[in-house]
Amino acid sequence: MNLILYGPPGAGKGTQAKRLETTLGVPQLSTGDMLRIARREGSELGQRAAAFMDSGQLVPDSLVIDLIRHRIGSKDCAGGFILDGFPRTVAQADALDEMLVGLGRTIDAVVSIEVSDDEIVRRIVGRLSCGACGTVYHEMSMPPRVPGQCDHDGSVLVQRADDTEPTVRSRLGAFRSQTSPLKELYGSRGLLLEVRGDVPPDEVTRGILTGLRHGDGR
Ligand code: AP5
User: Closest Cα partner for 65 from 42, 90, 37, 39?
Assistant: First the structure.
């Protein structure tokens, strides 16, 4: 199964990707996570991406396209993948088409997670993530069992540097101007599966799996 998770910042793409990884047995490929790792490691790529990420702008296409190109042909993606946060521009979608032709693969569905702007801001300013395993929490709606600690490995939970209200507004602006045309693009190919994202995470997962079983999208 080759999936794209599409949606604005905070829609729940990462939360759902982690759940689908387990259910579908294919890896999550998150460009946001890859860029944050590159920053932590202090690589040249991480340093080039930092200013864009902190101001809520998209990182230049060439940087993220290379990240996905290296990753998508790996052995663990042979049975499929879940793209989380890629593609985000028409140029990235075109590059993905080329990569897939080269690999003899096609996208099965593009899952669009639908959430209002007010809910997005509420979610993002309350988000906490595990610095070690990446599990995502929310201080109100999905709190960890012990405050400030990851349920899985006990690591300290942190707030992302770009999870402030002004940066979220800028990320929403980038989503509208640069990413939203992709919905029409994939819709015109009959690949779009729209699911409600403003319901509890279990219900969102059920909506996705039911849609995929019914062959929505393709
Ligand atoms: P990235 O990390 O991809 O951020 P994003 O798209 O802005 O998405 P988020 O991670 O903020 O949200 P999400 O949809 O995964 O929601 P989550 O599950 O965490 O990108 C960061 C930056 O990197 C970008 O701004 C850009 O600079 C750069 N970048 C990355 N990819 C790029 C690309 N392809 N091209 C160019 N630049 C790129 O959930 C959010 C919160 O809500 C959590 O607290 C969660 O617990 C809670 N929540 C989730 N689901 C529910 C629910 N159903 N009900 C209640 N709460 C929920």
Answer: 90
* Rounded distance from Cα 123 to ligand 1 centre (Å): 10
CA 145–ligand 1 middle distance (angstroms): 22
Tens digits of residue pLDDT in 122-141: 999 999 999 888 889 999 98
Both structure tokens of 174: 């980038």
Find the catalytic residue in 18, 19, 123, 127. Answer: 127
Write the DSSP assignment of 187-213 as a string of letters.
Answer: HHTT-EEEEE-SS-HHHHHHHHHHHHH
Catalytic (active site) residue 171: yes
Nearest atom within ligand 1 for CA of residue 5: 14
pLDDT at 181 over 80: yes
This prediction has a pTM of 0.94
Q: Is 13 part of the annotated catalytic residue set? A: yes
Q: How confident is the model at residue 214 (pLDDT cuts 50, 70, 90)?
A: confident
What is the C-alpha separation between 150 and 18, in angstroms, rounded?
15
Quote the pLDDT of residue 131. Answer: 83
Q: What CA–CA distances, in Å, run from 109 to 143, 169, 187, 198?
A: 31, 28, 10, 20
| Annotated active-site residue in 69, 71, 105, 160 | 160
Query: Known catalytic residue: 18?
Result: no
CB atoms within 10 A of CB 31: 23
Reported residue count of the chain is: 218
Encode pLDDT of 5-18 as tens digits.
Answer: 999 999 999 999 99
Using DSSP, state whether 91 is helix, strand or coil: helix
